[in-house]
Design goal:
Blueprint lengths: L2 H21 L8 H20 L1 H29 L8 H26 L1 H16 L4 H9 L21 H13 L3 H12 L3 H29 L21 H45 L1 H8 L9 H15 L7 H13 L2 H14 L5 H10 L6 H14 L4 H6 L1 H22 L1
């Protein structure tokens, strides 16, 4: 353990706490006992996953499931796409291996939801969380469900309670959606970061799964600091019995259709956002940077790390001091700062795509930077997610639509800090 990195992590956690305090709507009502217990629970999860053999073994087994899912998906994809899967380029791998993973996992999740298996797992984890953190049963269930489900699917488990939930509870549901990664895209990230190497796939699956689990108590800590609960709460854990489909076949079909929409949405967003980055970089680099001479200055001052004025350069240097404070090595702080900027302004898929390229090219000097970046990018905390939550959760509880809109930016801040808090703790323990 690097002492300097550890101390920077301590300072980083303090700074994150100060930011939450400054953005809090009810500073005097912050439940410090709950905050302390939530943070302790997050540390316990981290220590258990990373350093306790039998817990680590359990996570290895669960993580290996995601690797097996990738193989199942590859078999299905090979039947449809045939020899296209033999192409080694990133584009073909992404289009014909990564996106089909989203579709298959969505169908599998829908089936588990229909059979009630997923609800039982969520209930069990929620019961454990509820013993430590005195929060309402509805927000507890939703936060735990976000470990497996997306930001608009998890609220289905508490659909009957959404119209009656308080402002603090609604924010907790929103932050949970922002801070966690749905199982379908988690499996896709495993394939993208791990490539075709089963060992690397298992490595990243374990850390991505750990990020989702650790983000559950982080969500509670962050949301209750930003907007403390002052009303009476109902701690009962009662999961909605609403099912996806009327039978198993329909559940699989619905999940497949939802996964197809998500896969197309992810693919379309990547096409548009990466094209937008190219357009902005053309204006910055080929116009402003070229005619002002900034390109030459940037190339010389960064020792060739950046070739000119680009969006990546701007985001990297804006966020670099902040990620250094969290424990990222000085040699990698600009690159990780760039990833944080890409995730927040664009989306996490673009950022994970960039991380995959950085990992393969070897530009990140400290292996811990790759691990911490995996946690930093975990979750849906970006500006487009505000609209997704307003539309998705608002459809389940139309009376809360205006509240969802008002809390959007606060949820974005909360989701981002929850992921950063998780990454910092892991960095300190690595």
């Amino acid at each position: 353990m690097n002492l300097e990195s550890f101390l920077r992590g301590v300072l980083g956690i303090f700074v994150l706490g100060v930011i939450l305090y400054l953005f809090s709507s009810k500073k005097k009502d912050i439940p410090w006992r709950l905050v302390g217990l939530g943070f302790l629970l997050q540390v316990v999860f981290a220590v258990g996953i990373l350093h306790v053999p039998f817990i680590a073994a359990i996570f290895d087994k669960v993580s290996s499931f995601f690797v097996v899912v990738l193989d199942f998906t590859r078999q299905g994809s090979s039947f449809v796409f045939g020899n296209l899967l033999d192409v080694k380029s990133v584009g073909f791998i992404f289009a014909f291996q990564i996106l089909p993973t989203i579709i298959f996992f969505s169908a599998l999740t829908s089936l588990l939801f229909y059979l009630g298996i997923l609800q039982k797992i969520v209930y069990g984890l929620s019961w454990i969380m509820g013993k430590f953190l005195k929060i309402s049963g509805a927000e507890n269930l939703s936060t735990t469900a976000n470990i497996f489900l997306g930001q608009t699917e998890a609220p289905l488990l508490i659909k009957p309670y959404l119209p009656k939930m308080t402002r603090s509870e609604i924010l907790c549901v929103m932050v949970g959606g922002m801070a966690n990664t749905a199982g379908g895209v988690l499996a896709a990230y495993v394939g993208f970061l791990g490539g075709g190497d089963p060992v690397q796939q298992l490595f990243f699956a374990k850390h991505l799964l750990a990020a989702s689990v650790m983000s559950a108590p982080a969500t509670i800590v962050v949301s209750k600091m930003l907007l403390p609960q002052t009303e009476e709460i109902d701690e009962r854990l009662e999961i909605s019995e609403e099912k996806i489909g009327t039978n198993m076949i329909e559940a699989i079909a619905v999940g497949t259709e939802d996964g197809l929409k998500l896969a197309f949405n992810v693919g379309a967003m990547l096409i548009v956002f990466i094209a937008m980055i190219a357009m902005v970089n053309y204006l910055l680099n080929d116009v402003v940077g070229y005619y002002s001479g900034l390109n030459t200055l940037i190339q010389s001052t960064t020792d060739g790390q950046y070739t000119g004025l680009t969006l990546q350069f701007v985001l990297g240097y804006i966020c670099a001091p902040f990620v250094w404070l969290l424990g990222i090595a000085k040699s990698d702080m600009v690159y990780i700062g760039q990833l944080l900027g890409e995730k927040t302004i664009l989306n996490e898929f673009v950022a994970y795509t960039t991380l995959g390229k950085m990992k393969d090219s070897g530009v990140l000097k400290d292996p811990k930077s790759i691990i911490m970046a995996t946690y930093i990018l975990s979750g849906f905390a970006n500006f487009s997610s505000i609209g997704i939550q307003v539309g998705g959760i608002g459809a389940l509880a139309p009376s809360k639509r205006s509240m969802l809109s008002e809390l959007g930016i606060k949820a974005l801040i909360g989701g981002t800090i929850a992921s950063l808090l998780t990454a910092t703790i892991v960095g300190m323990l690595t």
